[in-house]
Amino acid sequence: MERSTGKTMDCFVEFVTNSEAREAVSRIDRLHEVSQGPRMGNRHVDVSLSSQDALLKALFPKAKCIRWEAGRPVQLPKRADEEWSTGFVGFMTDEELFCVARHAKEPHRSAFAGKVPQRTYESIISTIWKFPWYAVNMYTVHARNKLYETLRTMIEALLERLCAGRTVGLDRRLLSELLRAGLECPAFNPRMKWTLATCSDEQQILSRMHEAWLPYFPFDTLTWLPPNNPTALEFYAMLIAKGRIGDVAEGLKNCHTRPEYLEPYGKKWFEWRGPVTSEKKFSEAIQHEKQVLVNLLTTGYNVMKNERPRYSSHGIMPRPASATTTHASVDNQPGGVPLVGSSQMPSRQTSSVLSSGQPTSRANPRHQQTGSTRPHEETRWPSQGPNPYDPDPPSRRPLGPPAPPAHRGSRGSRGSASGHWRGLSGGSAFPQ
């Protein structure tokens, strides 16, 4: 789609293998020979073989000084006689994203967007999936933020139109595809994904997300790498909550302004802000936040060692030989960090029981509970989707309305095929 006007351009269909693509083209060519080829209205449809390079060039036409090789971008230097050229400045411009969002909010402003309202949503879905997120040294934090804000705006616009009435081409399935593109994006941090799910009002997705672990995730360009180990996440959250913030890079602000929300990461809520985001490469931002993470983990571990040993506090202290069960409340934990095995991390209404005779298994997230006001409650882990440790994730609505995400007005309270996360070299993760 031409983003400025909303006009539909060439359509690309991706196949798993080249042989399947050639077979499909041959079959359509045989139909053309007997005058039974596919049509769109009164127009014939011509089909030909293409490539990933042609697809990416059509998706990002404003990317200057870029050559696509085997689906990967290669930056070209400016020629000596092109002193006037700025060279490569990004895969997309802010104006393109502004126009895409405008077509969604006000489709009547464009004759093309008004006739086919779903096309602008399909365009942003393709953009999110095919954006070269792995090339972290070729786009900035600002570019990631603009794509996120555009997607969030379009989710809100689509939900508003669905609630207003029925429109041909717009349905809940399209909304689910928009949300899935955002949830599978490797450059969006967990709090961004929480906000996208909240804006979409998809209760089935929200019921699988924890209302404390995702919206209060402390970093902007770092994220978890699946599968999420609940024990490891709780342990590192405790260290981050106890850790001290040292020197941080310019533009990386600790925006924690809600003292009533200290769980599970304490007073840490970093976000890149200001003009520096337009110049800060995503790879550089990752390295700066890695240094902050290392400092928090190191100082937090030193603080933990100097404290009085608390048996069964987080499953890291040795247990006395005579102990059989240990009862502890989340309220008594240092830094307000939840216990390993509590059913609702963190919950001030549950207590956990860990038996020294039967060690907790990481493959089974359901632990024995006593004193819980909600017995047999399903465990919800801080993941972007279904609990990877639960073969039958719950699809029910949550027991209560989700808590409002932190700093919802800001960005922080904020692809191709399955398995897109694997092999990417984008945001880092907590060590497991």
From TrEMBL:
<feature type="compositionally biased region" description="Polar residues">
    <location>
        <begin position="322"/>
        <end position="332"/>
    </location>
</feature>
<protein>
    <recommendedName>
        <fullName>RRM domain-containing protein</fullName>
    </recommendedName>
</protein>
<feature type="compositionally biased region" description="Polar residues">
    <location>
        <begin position="341"/>
        <end position="373"/>
    </location>
</feature>
<dbReference type="InterPro" id="IPR012677">
    <property type="entry name" value="Nucleotide-bd_a/b_plait_sf"/>
</dbReference>
<feature type="region of interest" description="Disordered">
    <location>
        <begin position="309"/>
        <end position="432"/>
    </location>
</feature>
<feature type="compositionally biased region" description="Low complexity">
    <location>
        <begin position="413"/>
        <end position="423"/>
    </location>
</feature>
